[in-house]
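Input.
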Amino acid sequence: MPYHSGTGARPKRSLGQNFLIDGNIIRKIVDQLAILSGDTVFEIGPGRGALTHVLAQRTERLFVLEKDRDLLGALKVQLPGLGAILGDGLDFVWENLGALPSLKLVGNLPYNVASPIMWEVFSRVRPFTSCCFMVQKEVARRLVAQPGSKAYGGLSVWVQTFTVPQMLFHVSPRCFHPRPKVDSSVVRFVQRPRVSVDSEKLARTIHLLFQKRRKQLGTILKPLWTEKIDQWLEDARVDRRVRPEDLTTEQFAGLSRCL
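Output.
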């Protein structure tokens, strides 16, 4: 599969642009989506379009969200049937994607905004049938981390509340132009059934607890303590001496309802 160079413009550091150029990796990502007839594919950050051109061979309903006006213009010329959207993933109205039939999400997410974009996407897009994102390897480890591990943190809790993430494979820096200084990983996400949680309350609880992740739960929550928290600890069989990194996503959701 030839590498599509788009405008040929130099990558912009301000936008965190590292373009994927390895045809084998591109095909592996597209294969993981298992695109069927009638599926809608939404790509975040297509860049020069190396992944986009392969996706266009698999589906007639392809949309892309790109912040770089020049790159998006070049893609529209190369793929006239493309649903091209000029915009920033950090302020995009993600809820609108829920109206697209059989939605599948994909993207080589810029390192500098990957975490906040996933934070928004997974809590606001419903439903989607599959999702594959490429992110920095260390971020991928946080996405799949389990309670009690050093990598387990706020991003882990948030993403795993709404999805089941699975590490697929790692990608070498030589598969990109320019070459990043870190390895990347491709992660697949399966959406969980709708969970009974207030997103705003959960976000506040995550931020509150992980700001002091090495302290015990009872110490962190002391200024907010109520009988309701006491009852929750008893019902959930949680010791007030545990640290935030030891709580499961279900326990975070339950605690957020008390605060």
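Residues 82 and 90 are 22 Å apart (CA to CA).
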